[in-house]
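Worked Example 4.2. Read the sequence first, then its structure tokens.
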Amino acid sequence: MLYYFLYQFVFQQYGRNSESYFFKGLNVIQYVTFRTALAAITALLISLLLGNKVIKKLADLKFGQEIREEGPASHHEKRGTPTMGGVLIIGSVFISTILWARPDSLYLWIALGATTLFAIVGGIDDYIKIVKRRSLGLTGKQKLAGQLITAVAVWGVLYLWSNYPWNISIPFFKATAEVNGISYVGPIIYLVFTIFILLGSSNAVNLTDGLDGLASSVTFIAMSALTGLTYLASDGRWAEILDITHTPAAAELTVFCGAMVGASLGFLWYNSPPASVFMGDVGSLAIGGAIGTVAILTKQEFLLPFIGGVFILEALSVMLQVAVFKITKRGGRPGKRVFRMTPLHHHFEISGWKEPKIVFRFVIVAILFALLSLSTLKLR
């Protein structure tokens, strides 16, 4: 790890008492804000430099996107576009995080581990779609089982090997930020909460990944906001000023979030319309799992609807459509539809909006949600 080499070894061993500007400059490596910026830049550069090679390899392996027949007609021309490009995002995040983060952070390894497990579930799903030629991949129960195991694993590590605060921090109510205050629910109830958050966030990002550049651009915005919130939650001074739960163990998660910001921006270079590669479930489930895991570790769970508002709207549109359809289904007649097609971006697509227009407008909404999440910090 570059952090340990440059700071713990080079600076501490040889430069602590040196007047050299080189050694004095190395002292800045200890600051998490500086390393977060370096992680973002590193992940961005890795994505840009390796993008074409990864896309070519995926094409050589014939990992082409399968398109559902019931989807919008305009999507059929995308059949065969290389998919599983999420490996580029995950690889960039891992390399840059390992280079610039301190390795003694349990929370950091929980985030990396959860991201990996969600990526494995998504990778298996993609593999079945591509190799087995089953457009739906894993069955719903199989996918949920993999996500459930990952969620329980995250909770288990927190329960067995950390001093995790089992309170639920609710925006606008500063009393809930106290670790053993009125919002303390205990580890058992929090297990259910953890499962709900992780399954919800991973599936919400997965549902959003349906248009060129949509999921990656919204991820960039959401992770940028989450990077700032993670830093504030890990810093005692800011946590006290803003009345949020102080989680010092989450400091190195800021580096992880910064790496995700850079990686998603680099992937967007190739995923922007018309996309040269799709992230696939290996990317979308991993990103959603990462967002949910960081929110849990930093006690920002109730800010997720603001941080990832577009993801939530996409998921809610599907849930509402299914619920109304089943409720209104009578006597063999099909149920009523709220939208022309879900997730929500398909509704606008079928309504006549061009794909780039939908993406850009959703990005604007995502920015507004991100700003709203940051504004809640002083409304407590």
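Now turn to a second chain, presented in exactly the same format:
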Amino acid sequence: MEIIRRLNLAELLQKKSFFLLGPRSTGKSTLIRQQLAGQATLIDLLEGDHYLRLSTRPQELESLARSEPRRSIVVIDEIQKVPELLDEVHRLIERFKIRFLLTGSSARKLKGDRANLLAGRAWMAHLFPLSWCEIKKFDLHRYLRFGGLPQVYLGQDPAEELQAYTRTYLYEEIKAEAVVRKIPAFARFLEGAALSNGQLLNFADISSDCAVPAATVREYYSILEDTLMGFLLPPWTASKKRKAIQTAKFYFFDVGVSHSLAKVDTLDRNSNLYGNAFEHFIGMELRAYLSYARLTDALTFWRSVNDQEVDFVIGDHTAIEVKATQRVSPKDFRGLKALAEEKRCKNFLLISQDPLATTRDGVRCLPWATFLETLWGGGLF
């Protein structure tokens, strides 16, 4: 199956050095080989020779980086393995104007007190699972069940691939970084967090369900963020007529990974789980588009203390409600109508699986595929 990734590395690197962050298996190494072949010197810190040499003698980065002067870019893969190299990267950018691409699947060590984040000399980019626009023949049900990791979505046995991925995360990523002492407790937490994916964070409930102290639950969520396994969706709090809640939601970075951790085996079209997966999918498309298009608009959600809710708010201009229904009904507009009374947003969208595109009371109702075509075409806002 033909896959053309939306992120253009060569275009980014014409402007600046970059950190490229993304969870394992999102395709960073493949993307580098496809787009930078012949242009870049590759230093892979997962290779024993490179790791041992540079972890003990970081100053040898200069000889590696300048060994092929015809290549204008130096790629350091998995930079978090040797964060001390960032001091050398900083020096080489300043002295020789070398352009670097620094990839990583964990931000935990990069956030440490000693990590040199290059003081603006390198910008930040992210790689996400496959998006709708990157898959030539998109299968919605397959994506909602198994997610968009390339090896999973394109694999012959996606369920087995997902299980292998989550095992790798638990027993290699987490254990190797020595950030969790009790793997069984963390595994229970992961299941509980996956079952509450896309819901308001409630540390007390997760603590009770998983038999893990609430303080530990907070730390575990930080680990998920730092290892890029998930992200917080903050609330939009600019509403005046209706007081907004202040609690964030948490989403895993991939709908399939969330299902694997929650031990979901089937996805019934008429279940709440299906609706949650569809919402998660649209949210990830929005997040990926904003990142790849280099837009700074915040992605948030709105919920009043009276439980009126809109799934996603982009900046202060676009409100988006997501419904998996195949036929839109008046009740689906309630959250958008309540938010419209605030007179802040200009665009109101209802995204569903209803094939009919209409406009009702100032709300554009779009079939999901039409919405994504408009979004990725740059014509949504």
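Notes for the reader: The chain has 15 helices and 13 strands. Residues 133-376 form one domain.
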